[in-house]
Design goal:
This protein is an alpha/beta fold and 532 residues long. The protein folds into 3 domains: 165 residues, P-loop containing nucleotide triphosphate hydrolases (Rossmann fold), CATH 3.40.50; 162 residues, P-loop containing nucleotide triphosphate hydrolases (Rossmann fold, 3-Layer(aba) Sandwich), CATH 3.40.50.300; 78 residues, no CATH class. Helices cover 31% and strands 24% of the residues. The strands form 5 sheets. It has a 6-stranded mixed beta sheet, sandwiched between helices. The chain has a 6-stranded mixed beta sheet with strand order 16-19-20-13-21-22, sandwiched between helices. β9 and β10 form a beta hairpin.
Length: 532
Amino acid sequence: MSKHPGSAQTVESAPAPKPRAPASGSPATGRACGLEVISLTKRFGDFTAMDQVSMKVRPGSFHALLGENGAGKSTLVKCVVGYQQPDEGSILIADREQQVRSPREASMLGVGMVYQHFTLVPHMTVAENLIMSRIDTPQFINWRQARVELEAFMQRMPFRISLNAPASSLAAGEKQKVEILRQLYLERRFLILDEPTSVLTPNEADEVLGMLKEMCRRGEVTVLMITHKLREVKAFTDSVSVLRAGRYVGGGDTDDLTTEDLAELMVGERQPPAAESRAARGAGRTVLEISGMRARDDEGVPAVRDVSLSVSAGEIVGIVGVSGNGQKELVEVLAGQRHAENTGISVQGQPYRARRSEMIRHGVAILPEEPLRNACVPGMTVADNMAFRVFDRAPYSFMGWLRNGQRRKRAQELIKAFGVRTPGAESPIGKLSGGNVQRAVLARELTGDVRLLIAANPVFGLDFKAVREIHDRLREARDNGTAVLLISEDLDEVLQLSDRILVMYEGRIVYETTRDQAQVRSIGKHMAGDHA
């Protein structure tokens, strides 16, 4: 009997699972295969996420799929890999029209996807992660034979990773290589990569993409890469497609397109919206000051890199950037949900470490993204959630006892003032619509002496009416002298609301402009990584 470390059941006589041959005629039986989508449309109720999209990826090419958040990129690839089915249009893989009804069917057609976040089992070795990823893995595995076959497979691969290494011990770049190796081991010949370098250092990213580029050149695979990094697009891809607002808006051979062309396709040629009138106001005193903030993400990779900024009373400073460039981690540091590697943060001239006592003393309010997950307890009542900032203070508490009558009275006043639609103050907040959850959180956060408001993607997923109401509340807070830091992935939202605009890219503030001098094309270039 042959034992493999970490394996519970092994026998000498059982064969090791081999990459299963796809059905006859499947594109995975040959070399790299191409993809074409024709008039692909996907609706979710009244919302059209993808509208008559047509694009083609040549066999053996390295193709980039670009677009701002909400452009339809994720919807397109989910249809290709079978997580969703389009309402209209056709998908052709290796020049054959296919109905991809599930990820398993996509796998049998040779299509594999490498996700933005790692999917390896941490306590398993690299070898075990590869073997166990097969859908036909037997109950008993001959690890000696498996080892021989895996070593032969690795000899053909451009990546060199120890088969015995536990996945938890690998660096981020090595984990990404294993994710790609797994798809190649499963004989996928069309790889979809979702932001593959978001957790990699620049050197790791260049190594991984360079190796994939060489495999494409040899005709071994075709790669479709979702990315927002134009430097990598120009350095490694052969062709590009750009989506905007659910539609295909352009593309072509990478060599024929400048970074300016790509940025303009992504953000459009729209002009900044006219600034709304506001009362003339002199520059207020600085409320929030950040100096050289550094923080890491959940994988230990630097996410916020020496960020410095300030926000004054009576102004909205908007930070815009494509998702995954450190905005989330920045907000979590300011909200006390993530540790910063240094403490260069002050509010009203005093050190700030995001403790509850400091938030109350300095009048700091937080409106986080996805408030039902990050700012509320869904099973608790609307009244209880509205009381989180004041429940232990008079008149809502007396000698350690909660005064429920006062809590309910306050909640009813806030529900009326902010137009929260709820059956009552004692209804669970998790039963409310997204817009009403956001109104309830705004009511809680904006009541009282608020001197600093931090708002992260405050209208994400809300309907038009809720968006307008919440934007009006942010402007009202600004006009009343509150310093507002707005973090958003929606460039139009930042342009509409902000007095100053900052662009965040790869954890750094790379561009700053006033609202009056803002140029969409220049902002879009910096959002996409072109800082020349």
